[in-house]
Amino acid sequence: MKHLTGGKFEFGAITQEVLRSCWSRNQAPTYREFARLWQQAVVDHSRPNPEWAFLSDRNAGTAGPDWKKLRNQKAAAVLALLKKATA
Q: 1 FRET partner, CA 20 to 30 A, in 16, 33, 50, 69?
């Protein structure tokens, strides 16, 4: 994969997302096809996905020692907003 991507390939979250996407469509890409898909995914991916909460907060500079407390506060705020919207 390194050879096919000019030495840039890394096995990480983006790789797993590309694989999951292919497999969910019952596709088994060749190495060359996968390298192309991976390179496009890297270009398209400008910041962590929302479900990657820790990485998102780390990217924003807010993932400190009280990270779980921060996430709980965010969750509570969202739940309060949803409760208000459905009342």
A: 50
Report how far residue 29's alpha carbon sits from residue 25's, in angstroms, rounded to the nearest whole number: 11
Residues 56, 47 contacting (CB under 8 angstroms): yes
What are the distances in angstroms from CA 11 to CA 38, 56, 85?
10, 19, 41
Distances from the Cα of 50 to the Cα of 23, 34, 58, 67, angstroms = 22, 24, 12, 15
Paired tokens of 15: 């790789």
Is the pLDDT confidence value at 24 over 70? yes
Q: What is the pTM of this model?
A: 0.58
Same domain, yes or no: 24 and 60:
no
Structure tokens at 81: 């907003």
Tell me, yes or no, whether 9 and 31 share the same domain: yes
